[in-house]
Amino acid sequence: MYTIIETDSWKRRPVFELYRNYAQPEFNLTGQIEVTGLYHSCRASGIPFSTALLYHSVQTANAIPEFRLRLAGDEVRLYDFLHCGCTDLDAEENLRFVYYTFQPGEDLAGFAARYPKGSSAARSVTPGTSTDRDLELDLLFHTIIPWFQFTGLRHPRNESDGVGSIPRIAFGKFAPDASGRLMMPASVEAHHGLMDGLHVSRYFTQLEARTR
Questions:
Q1: Where are the beta strands (DSSP E) in the chain?
Q2: E-strand stretches of 37-94
Q3: Could you tell me the residue ranges of all domains in the chain?
Q4: Per residue in 164-189, pLDDT tens?
Q5: Which of 90, 112, 131, 183 has its CA 20 to 30 A from that of 211?
Q6: Residue 100, burial from CB neighbour count under 10 angstroms (0-12, 13-18, 19+)
Q7: Residue 154 in 3-state DSSP?
């Protein structure tokens, strides 16, 4: 479900009109967030760290209206609630896309119980075998790259059908800093016509409040 934004009276209209026709309207911010608390709580509960990370990321983004804005043709839509698409590897280390449905008000334990590690509960799609879900806009795209601590990242993009207005969120390998805090690289790439660095900064700050 979504609401159509009346762009004629939208306070963001000047910025939106500036960036909407750019060949590359996306910007990217990358930084580090602390995940010490989340790591230890996952070890104590047995919930996979990646499962908990996706849960908290989607909950955080849903609380920031700009993350729920999408561009569909000439429409700007504000979605009521977002779900999650995430890259994964199959048994032969080939890329696939996995989709997770979120339920408003659901806690982490409930989400993890619906998607136990290695289960078939999540819907997976092999790249190149498009389904209707690939083109729906009530998603946040995620990728988790746990092998190294990146300092920058750029995503491949297909701008058709409004998919280019979906934020891309990436997480990397966490490691202890000099004081022993576990720090993890995080990246958000988003359409500048729909949000600014302020909104991405709010996402990082609010996500870290959940994970530190």
A1: 2-4, 26-34, 69-72, 75-79, 83-89, 95-100, 123-125, 139-144, 168-171, 175-176, 182-191
A2: 69-72, 75-79, 83-89
A3: 26-211
A4: 899 999 999 999 999 999 999 999 99
A5: 90
A6: buried
A7: coil
What's the length of the chain? 212
- Rounded distance between C-alpha atoms, residue 34 and residue 58, angstroms: 17
pLDDT tens readout for residues 123-154 = 665 554 445 555 689 999 999 999 999 999 88
Token digits for 10?
A: 């939208």
On the CB side of 88, CA atoms within 13 Å amount to: 20
Question: How far is Cα 142 from Cα 98, in angstroms, rounded to an integer?
Answer: 10
Cα 195 → chain centroid: 14
Candidates 98, 160, 164; CA nearest to 126 is 98
Assigned CATH class of 26-211: alpha beta
Q: Contact, 186 vs 13, CB < 8 A?
A: no
